[in-house]
Design a protein that fits this description.
There is one protein chain. The protein is of the alpha+beta class. It has a single domain, classed as Trna Endonuclease, Chain: A, domain 1 (3-Layer(aba) Sandwich). The chain has five helices and nine strands. It has a six-stranded mixed β-sheet, with helices on both faces. A three-stranded antiparallel β-sheet has the order 4-8-7.
């Protein structure tokens, strides 16, 4: 089971009145989770990425797709980037606005062939909030208790 799947499963377990679905219709990606109320009212989207591996002294790193970010940013629904650290529940969280600003400023390394920006842990450690468990993450997102 992937860390993204574990996060989705935990969301459903802790918040049975919320619905999660893949964002994007027929071209849905499991990395983007759209959260709605039980009545179908959209609340937010989460762009969830698992760490690729440890990279020397920089710790974990993640690849985030520019097209996905632009798509999320073009919609009125608020979105958050969740960076998972391995198979555990530890993660970083950032608002979509902050991620989009980093991308536009070109402060992240970029792999043109994949349209992907790399975020290294040393770039965000101490700047982005780090959560030890999914429950802590859910509280930070202010999801309504079911």
């Amino acid at each position: 089971m992937t860390a993204v799947h574990n996060l989705r499963r935990s969301l459903r377990m802790y918040f049975p009145n919320l619905r999660t679905e893949r964002h994007g219709g027929s071209r849905a990606t499991p990395s983007i989770i759209k959260i709605t109320t039980s009545s179908g009212q959209p609340m937010m989207s989460l762009y969830v990425k698992s760490a690729a591996s440890k990279h020397g002294s920089q710790g974990h790193f993640w690849g985030i797709n520019e097209n996905q970010i632009r798509s999320l940013n073009s919609k009125p629904l608020p979105w958050w980037l969740v960076l998972l650290m391995g198979s555990a529940e530890r993660c970083y969280l950032s608002s979509g606005d902050k991620v989009y600003q980093l991308m536009e400023a070109r402060t992240l390394s970029y792999q043109d062939s994949r349209h992907e920006h790399k975020i290294h842990e040393d770039q965000i450690s101490g700047k982005w909030q780090k959560y030890p468990t999914f429950v802590d993450l859910f509280e930070a997102l202010r999801l309504p208790k079911g």
